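Board work, copied verbatim: BAI1-associated protein 3 isoform X2
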Amino acid sequence: MSTLLEIKSSVLRQVQVCPSFRRRTEEEPASSSTEVQEPAAGAWKPGDGVEFFAQMRLILKKGEGRQGLPCPEVLLRSSSPAPTEPVDPSRGLRALTQEEVEMLYEEALYTVLYRAGTMGPDQVDDQEVLLSYLQQVFGTSPEEHAEAMERVKKAKAPTYALKVSVMRAKNLLAKDPNGFSDPYCMLGILPASGTLREPGPHKEQRFSFRKGSKRGGPLPAKCIQVTEVKSSTLNPVWKEHFLFEIEDVSTDQLHLDIWDHDDDVSLVEACRKLNEVIGLKGMSRYFKQIVKSARANGTAGPTEDHTDDFLGCLNIPIREVPVAGEDRWFKLEPRSSASRVQGDCQLVLKLITTQRDTSMSQRGRSGFLSYLLLLSRLLQFEHRAEEPNSSSWRGELSGPAATVLCLHGAQSNLSALQLAVLHWQVSSRHHQTRTLDYGYLLGLLEDMQAHWEEAASLPQEQEGLADSFSAFSEFGLRLLRQLRDYFPATNSTAVYRLELLLKCLGKLQLFQPSFEICPFETELNMDIAAALKRGNREWFDKLLNSQSPREQPGPQRLAGLVKLADAVYEDLQSCYGIYASLFHSIIKIDFFTLTFRQLERLVAEEAWVLTEELSPKMTLEVASGLFELYLTLADIQRFWSSIPGRDSRSLALAGIHAPFLPAVKLWLQVLRDQAKWRLQGAVDVDTLEPMDSSSKHSSSAATASLCFSHMQELWARLAWPDPAQAQGLGTQLSQDLCEAALFYTELLRKKVDTQPGAAGEAVSEPLCVVLNDVELLRKAADQALRGLVWPEGAPGLEGVLPRPLLSCMQALDEDLQREARTVTAHLTSKMVGDIRKYVQHISLSPDSIQNEEAMAPLLKYLDEKLALLNASLVKENLSRVLEALWELLLQAILQALGANRDVSADFYGRFHFTLEALVNFFHAEGQGLPLESLRDGSYKRLEEELRLHQCSTRECIEQYYLDKLKQRSLEHNRFGRLSVRCHYEAAEQRLAVEVLHAADLLPLDANGLSDPFVIVELGPPHLFPLVRSQRTQVKSRTLHPVYDELFYFSVPAEACRRRGACVLFTVMDHDWLSTNDFAGEAALGLGSIGGVARPQVGGSARAGQPVTLHLRRPRAQVRSALRMLEGRNNKEAQEFVKRLKELEKYMEADP
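↓ predict structure ↓
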């Protein structure tokens, strides 16, 4: 018993048809491959099953990657560097002449020597370093450098100017009663001569443009500018721009006052009028004259009533302005320590040159052009220092290069937009000569876009910018035409570069409406779509010429066209999984639809032409090639249909299946024969031993399972679209599969018959392996057949197995179940003799030994054999063998009981104990057979006989009648109904039985009617020894007789309450010329009738409700009790049996 208790799901698991089998059998046994002959050209020979299914596996493996829509994570398999993009040195900026190079070099030296302002932390402040760097960039010899330096030093110094943008102020003091102020700014340059002396220790005072100043000295400001007045605000916004000439960069200062305006006449306007009369440099030296001039032109009252309030001032040395300029908030300062001010003012400052004594300036070369040439020179030098063939350079300039460009851009007064345009023009051209990172170019475009609101200031530069856009877009379109070469979908680096390139092209479209001179003849996205279409066609033609040239004969072109179709499918996967989202999200082009429509049409044209050419030349080789080609074409169709909202009926491949039908039929015929040859070869080399320690089936079963799985997968890939044709193909394939399965079991049976059996071996390992093989085959075939569904053509039938396929599955399952039962019977037949021997040992054991000891040899034998079976069989087969052994044990015990009559009760008690112990043994606490199956069938018969054998004769007789009372008619209307009424009359101590009528009796005569009568008797006889049976009159020719006859039986009430006491009604058909026919019987227990269950109180002699009894025939359990009594030799049993037989004769006699 311990064996079954140790059975767990992990031990009894059934090896399913799963990928593990496929992996396990990918490499066929070496002995199998050695027997295979090479196939002749154009045909498959018997014995080629291995090679045929190897080719079939390759076809299926190709289809494994075509399930569902592709994922980018699957396609992007490489992160290696992207392919090198084409470059053309002629696409860069034109080369400079030697004279232009010399002038550019002097321009750069002039920029460094006459720099002004403060250098930033990231800039190079060492002049010698900058000069040495320029010497390297231009490749100048020391002598040439010295000469250039001499010329630059002799040149006049540039004229400097300060650009000031007064942007806004915040948090100013409120000077007006309404809680606000009306602020304006006055600003100018304090020359070196106006520098204040050191203040005394007792008082701190700063210069200011002070109204009503009583100082008699001249005002030190050489130019005063004012902003507009912003009314009623403490956070004014001006955004006004001013330009001041600088005499001495090292000593001049910018001074700014903020005032609260209180005059009726605008002081700003007064300043402007005065400047118109006097001029900027000849402006009055005294601020009060400006005030007086304003008063004279106004209508205000006394000056003292209209003085402006001071809000704060700023003093900024020119030398402290950064070289690159600055945009900064400055904290307002008081005029003296006694002043009370607050707030900040935002200024944008930039130090520029207005006149430059250089050759380029003298020849009218603008600072824009000078910067462009200098940037190009520096970019080429800086990129040359990078590693060759690097496409990841992002334009990172060295410190000296960035410093020189910053100085030149600031001195040339180039705006942020101009600088962005220059960097784009130079870098985009340089990219076409030596590849840059597209992220760098995209950043330049974004920088230009951020300042594009200033585009109105670029009238002269638009043409050059438009040319750069045209050149870059032309370069990008050329790359997109060769998309698959330069941006392969499997390379994540290349795909990222493509994404950045598309973003650059997308940015170009944003600038297009802003150009007066349009750089694009058509919309850029239309040009991109045209380039993609042209690239698709060029890629397809190149592939067609290399794989399947049209000048080759059809059979030779076929293999190449298969490769071409595969390449098209893979390309469409890349388009959908990688490229489509990029093109759609960035430049709004449906690249996948564009490509699919074009390539699908091209490959369809080639397929139609080739199939028409090959149809009259159909051979096995051609059919194999056409079959593989069709699978790929069908995959292309399904790929389109799997995308939501796409309809394949409009494709050029729609209906392409029709010319492939003959090839598919021929190929499936070859598949049928090859499957049988493959199975034959697998069984021939099979040793009927488990493949390994983890499996319990042999190698041939794994091969058969794999073959069926391949057939099912192939059908799924075929997915024939025509329902009628699919039904024919699917029906044939399912029949072929069933035929192959039965062919395999026949081969196994022959194989195991030739195996020599070990002498005295009760459990045959080869038989166990064969049984496991059959079970594995059954499951594999069932799974494969369920996969061979085809469209029925009617709606709502998805997932429903077609009727022919279902019939085929059921028939095959029955055949394989029958085969499994046959092998199981063969396996257990060797144990029959041993089981009978151990059962006989139990029957012959003397009463003196214990029951456990008597049955111990049987349990030990079963435990040993089941341990072997458990180790050799899978769960389903172990259950089959257990069921067979259980039936063998029950039959052996029944035979033992039949061979021993009139023995002691202990004999039957021992077998009853044995039976229950075997039930527990085979159930094994739920790990073995279920109790429902153990306690069914032969068990019930055996258990009944054991129970009856243990009963006394009277108990058996009572059981006979109890069984009749327990009977229930399963077919109520088959034998008819009988209505009776019974009650017990206590006063007379008699039982009254009234037979009322019957209905729907069986027609037992030739005329379709019967002549029924009813026999009424009480039982058991030992309870009513003096009571004789009675019967009604015969009712002729009726199936619904009415009797209304009353019978009395004088019996005590105590006898009616005894166990099994009942009244038995037997309906017979009276025949005059032959024996009476039995029509049915019914029994009514006496314990429940009125007067017996409870005393009769009042009422008539016929009180009580009628009872309708359904007639039936005696069941097996009633007969078993009778047979038990027939086997007993005591007088009472023999008399009861004899009386029943006499009663039967009496019933058969004529009345």
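The first strand starts at residue 159 and ends at 170.
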